[in-house]
Amino acid sequence: KLGYKYHWALPDYLQRSARHIASATDAAHAAAVGRAAVEYALAGHNGVIPVIVRGSDVPYRWKIAPAPLARVANHEKKLPRGYITRDGYGITAQARKYLQPLIQGEAYPPY
Asked: What InterPro entries does UniProt report for this protein, alphabetically (predicted)?
């Protein structure tokens, strides 16, 4: 009504851009996915996207693999129902087992 231009921000913007609280696993995943994307492009691979494939939980092992865009684009991967407690306010042991390796190590950004 006042004629001012404005934009409101959702709280999740801060979470999605919070590199300062990334785990070492986050940083390793991000670097590997970025590297693979460049390698795929330079090799002329089209219609694929690099994805993280978990090999094992303990010890945590993972690799990067190409996934066809047609299979993953415009699809939503939901959190399994078994990861949330019945009351909806907590996580289960199954969720903790899956998430634990993803929060390991500190990766402070260089200043």
From this structure: PKF_sf
Those residues whose C-beta lies under 8 Å from the C-beta of residue 88, and which sit 6 or more positions away, are none
Contact, 45 vs 36, CB < 8 A?
no
**What does the pLDDT look like over 6-17, one tens digit per residue?**
777 776 766 667
State both tokens at 48.
């694929």
CA distance 44 to 87: 49
What is the per-residue pLDDT across 43-53, written as a single tens digit (0 to 9) for each? 999 999 999 99
Please, are residues 29 and 6 in contact by the beta-carbon 8 Å criterion?
no
Structural domains of the chain, ranges and CATH numbers in brackets: 19-102 (3.40.50.450)
Q: Which residues of 63-102 are buried (b: 16+ CB within 10 A; e: fewer)?
A: ebeeeeeeeeeeeeeeeeeebeeeeeeeeeeebeebeebe
For residue 10, what are the CA distances in angstroms to 4, 32, 42, 59, 93?
A: 19, 29, 36, 36, 30
Q: How far apart are CA 12 and CA 55, in angstroms?
A: 30
